Amino acid sequence: MSAGIIDIDYVKYACTCGLLKTLQQLYFCRYCSELRCSFCVSHEVDSHFCGKCCENLPSPEARVKKNRCVNCFICPSCHHELSTRIASKQPATPEEAKATKRTYYLSCLCCRWSSRDIGLPDQTSATGSWPKRKTFMQDKEFFKRKQKEKIISYTDKTGITAASLRKRIGLPEDKPILKLKNAVKMVTPSIAQEDIDDFDEEVLTKSINLLEITSIDQRLLQPDVQPVEMNMIFPVQKMLSIKRSLRCRSCEHNVSKPEYNPNSIKFKIQLFAFYHIPEIRIVTVQPLRAGVPAELLIKFTNPTQHQTTISFLPFDTPIEIKESTAEVGGSKGEDDTSDLDKSLPLMKVIPSGAKVMALVDSHLNMSRSSARMVTPRPLDVSINCDVEIPSSTFILPPRDDAAEYDDFNEAHNIQDDKKLVIWRKSNKAFIKLIVTPKEDTSIGTVITAGFTMSHLYTNTITSVAENKKPQKFNHNIKLILDLGKSVGSE
Amino acid sequence: MPLYEVEKSVIVLDIGTSFTKFGFTSEPAPRSIYRTQVKSKGQIRELWDYRDAQDLYDMLVDFFHDIYFKYALNSPKDKPIVIVESLLCPIIFRETLAKVLYKHYGVSSILLLSSHLVSLAPLAIDTALVLDVGYKEAVCIPVCYGMPMIHAWQALNLGSQTIHKHLQMLLNEKNSGAQNLSEMTLEDIKVRCCFVTKKSRAQQLQTLKPQIEMCPEIKYPVKGSTTISVCGTTREKAYEILFDEDADHLCLPTMILDALMKVNIDLKHQLAENIVLIGGTTMAMGFKSRLKEELLCHSKEERYKKLNIKCFKFHTSPSKENYAAWLGGAIYGSTDCLNTKAIQRRNILKKRNYLIGRI
């Protein structure tokens, strides 16, 4: 995820699954209107590509190629990528210079290992012609092919099958091929040996050069051979990488889907929480002392195109987990999910009445999607600071990119509670909260405050599908703020 | 080979304490062998150093995420998986593993295989005494006609970890600056410099003034700045800890003999003549021949007189020993076993709901 300036983990949002994440690490499923994180979405392989040459492969082809790139190699010595180099051999005579072609070899720019170190001959073409190590498996396939070549079929050419020929001549039906196929070839069992000679007397007298012996990582890079000596190592084909698409487990809609092209870093679908949930940052906090109220300034930013109202609730406000029924968005409704849900008691009806959300006990629900739902866990946090919850609410105007550059447009017709809102500009507002660290906190403990933010969310997804007005509802999120360490008295 | 003819390959996994073997069914070697580590919250942790079930659950989720999206490059949903594990695997690990795979990743079925049993598959035999020497422990279980003899199991706290500790101690004796070498460095020294010596030499090394010529010393560079000397005695003695009897007079060879003592008298000779060694530690040079020497020597002791075994025979695996169990899993996974013996997800879910309904 994005590191650096925007990924500061002082403010954490509680995901629906109970994990604490920063806003940048969260997704927001617009169909269920819930926060999702990498832990509680299901990951799927979208496309295969090579990270070095950026070639993308369809997944069946990738499977055939054993998830490895044909052209790119990694260094068997240091696992770095190998680069193809042009051999710089000076021709002895001008005639020779004309006649000789360019040759290539592989070289590691990290550890200086090169394909010449193991005596691999230089290649005439840059890609595709690198010799492969003969493995046990390849040998076996070679033999199979040889055996097949021996039996030459003439019937294909004449159109007469063996069976019809037999009938014509009047021979009884025979199934020699079938028999061959069904007959299980008995494997010869291994025979145990009494004489073992795995001790090399030479080791007692010969001094060894450490540089000639491979390390365990170098050995395990080639699991089938596991070479012991440095001159046995061989360039390894680079593993392919994948692009992942992420899917919400409850409604099976994508929350993130990348573009197919490996060069593109854009997404087809990107439902990051960053675009939907108000962002909160700590501006400043007065020194925190046990039992003494302190002012806390936090900045709210509305990233959406719709005006929102934000109110505060105590931290321990229960948040209901909605289990959306399958027909949201009208994409599906064929399986037994909806029937099952209807048979269960409906426990909550969302206001503005478009959709019925059933609060279903996740244990009872046998449906396919909910069986894979991540059961929410209790928040792993200890709150040692009380937050005075303001009773008033405030409004955040929609995001306006043009306003960012407008220094003079200070006029806004919003009636604010002056005690709550300190300053505002376009879609941002500074909010003052009073926090009191608990009496028994010792000096130097990290003060953690928490509250529940309720923001008015405008869901536009159903309005597009069904030509309705966008539905608005309050969405509650628990927030955990790391306010730094407490200090002693003045 | 046309693209559409490719069979659906199934992941085979052998989660060892130190290294995880990963590959697909009906392949002769694992695709990759890598350290059983999980990167969680910015630090690298060993998977088996879990605190509790919840901690293990989270680590396993990360661990399988790597397997599916870094190595297998496959979506896990509705696909079977083959897991090779020791019979002595803790219940908590097995249950959490099942929870992660069925619930979090939604695999269709899991085929759990016993590592001792399946490692006989590549050898095409059904009776053998299997000794698995891994990182943490050595486990010996006799397998008779395809049935592991659980009552005869032997386990000792002997493995790479013990060797590493022993090696550190030996190095400290000779080098002042070798106080705190990392496990990785010790492993590297062990792999590149040390070997299992012969019994006659080992006995000489025990004495104060060994009457043998020492093997050459090796200068081993550490972190590019210092050099520690790995002397001849250290090189030979590193593995000795496996063959030294502990306070209870137990060591690697006695494990095999104790296991033989516990099986039926008719099977004793057959098992002694079919010994299979698996696990990465058994790959050390000279390990097999030394074990045989030790076995012959210990079998003459008073406590094992009853056995009356004069001959020990060892099998040579077609694969490297460290992935012998994996290879067995790959063979089993490519047979009908996968459809008949695997635990289906729908059955598990039904049972779970049934249980909840009862309560």
Automatic annotation (TrEMBL), chain A:
Main location: cytoplasm
Domain of life: Eukaryota
Pfam entry (one): Dynactin_p62
Keyword annotations: Acetylation, Coiled coil, Cytoplasm, Cytoskeleton, Isopeptide bond, Phosphoprotein, Ubl conjugation
GO CC entries: cell cortex; centrosome; myofibril; stress fiber
Localisation per UniProt entry: Cytoplasm, Cell cortex; Cytoplasm, Cytoskeleton, Microtubule organizing center, Centrosome; Cytoplasm, Cytoskeleton, Stress fiber; Cytoplasm, Myofibril
Quaternary organization: Subunit of dynactin, a multiprotein complex part of a tripartite complex with dynein and a adapter, such as BICDL1, BICD2 or HOOK3. The dynactin complex is built around ACTR1A/ACTB filament and consists of an actin-related filament composed of a shoulder domain, a pointed end and a barbed end. Its length is defined by its flexible shoulder domain. The soulder is composed of 2 DCTN1 subunits, 4 DCTN2 and 2 DCTN3. The 4 DCNT2 (via N-terminus) bind the ACTR1A filament and act as molecular rulers to determine the length. The pointed end is important for binding dynein-dynactin cargo adapters.
Protein name: Dynactin subunit 4
Top-level taxonomy: Eukaryota, Metazoa, Ecdysozoa, Arthropoda, Hexapoda
UniProtKB/TrEMBL annotation, chain B:
SMART domains documented for this protein: ACTIN
InterPro entries given in the database record: Actin (IPR004000), ATPase_NBD (IPR043129)
Highest rank taxon of the organism: Eukaryota
Gene3D superfamilies given in the database record: 3.30.420.40, Actin, Chain A, domain 4
CDD domains associated with the record: ASKHA_NBD_Arp10
SUPFAM superfamilies the record matches: Actin-like ATPase domain
Family listed: Belongs to the actin family.
Annotated protein name in UniProt: Actin-related protein 10
Organism: Cryptolaemus montrouzieri
Lineage: Eukaryota, Metazoa, Ecdysozoa, Arthropoda, Hexapoda
